[in-house]
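Bump. Still looking for Betaine/proline/choline family ABC transporter ATP-binding protein C-alpha cells.
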Amino acid sequence: MIRFEHVTKRYADGTTAVDDLSFEVAEGELVTLVGPSGCGKTTTMKMVNRLIEPTSGRILVEGGDIAEADPVQLRRRIGYVIQQIGLFPHKTVLENTATVPHLLGWQRKKGRDRAAELLELVGLDPSVYGDRYPDQLSGGQRQRVGVARALAADPPVLLMDEPFGAVDPVVREHLQTEFLRLQSQVRKTVLFVTHDIEEAVRLGDRIAVYGSGKIEQFDTPASVLGAPATPYVADFVGADRGLKRLSVTPIEPGDLEQPPVVHLDDPLPKAAARLAADGARWAVVLDDADGLHGWIPADAADGTEGTVRDHARRMEAWLPVGAPLKQAFSQMLQHDAGWVAVLDGERFLGVLTPARLHEALRRSIDADAGGIARGDVDLQTVADV
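Sorry for the wait, here they are.
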C-alpha cells in the first residue's frame, strides 16, 4: 500500500533528515514510527502526503508514484491526524467531521450522514455532540473528532502524528484502546508517529525504530523487544524491554497448568478426595456446563456434609485465552492472586501461574530468535539442571 524506495530528504543547509529510506507498509497494516525528536520519523510521514517533498527516491501509494499526483487531490484521499487536532473553531463537530467529503463535492446530506456515522464509531453520539463546537469538548473528545474527520472520506491511508500526545495519561490509554477497536473494524493502512516506545509496542503491527535519519530495526513489537537488532535499539527500548514484551505476548493453551477440578453439586467428601489425590491446596469449581464458577480451598472441603456449592468462593482473577501476559500479571497483582484462570469463551482451559507466565515469556523470546513455534521451544529450567 505504501512503499519507500531509496528516499532521502536533504535541506539546503546540508541537514539530512532522512537518508536512503526503503520500506513497505502492507494494506491494512498499522506501522508505528518511533524514535527521539529530530530522528526523521515525522519527515517520513509528511513526505507521504507531500507536505514535505523528498530530495530523491520514490514514494508509492496504492502502486502510484505520488510525485505524479496533484498534491491537493492526494491529501484529500489520505487521512491526517495531528496532535493539535486542527478543528475549525467556528464550525460544529458535525461540520468539522464532514469537511473533506464536502471538499470532494459530496452532497451535503451524504456528507453529514457519513460524519454522523463516524462520530458514532469513535464513541461520540452525534445527537449529543454533533451541534457542539470544539471549545465545548474535552481534549480527548476533540481528538476523537480529529480521527473521525480523517476517516470521513474513507481514505485508504491514514497518517497520525503524535495524535494522543497532548492529553493526560489516563485519557491517552483510553484513546489508544478505542483506536485499536476502531482499527479492527476499518482496517486502514496507518503510519503512526510517536516518541513513546510503549505506545508504539501497544498499537503497531510492526515498528520502525529510527536512529538519525535511518531505520535501525523494522519488525514486529515482540521481535524488537525480544531481539533488538543493534545496541542503539536495545538502549532505546530500555532495560525493561522484557516487561514491555509482556504486553505483546499472548496467553496460549500450552502455557497453562491443569489444577484439580470439582463441580458445584459434588459432595464435599468427593471434592476432598480429589484434592488429596493431587496433593493440592485448592481446586477450580465448575458449573454443570463446565463453565468457570469459582474455587474452593482444601480446608473448606474437609466437611462430611454439604456440597461444593456451599463453600465455593468467587473467582476474581480470570482472562480469555489470547490476552497479553501483561494483563495476567496485572490481575495477579490487583487481586493478590497466585494464579489466573484462563477461559475460551465460557469454557475453562486452565490456570496461569507466575512460574508459567515467566516460562511463556522466555519461550516467546526463544521462539522468535529461533524462528519456531513457542510449543517447539525446549526450555531448560532450574529444575532441569
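The chain has two domains: 2-245, 253-361.

Edit: fixed formatting.
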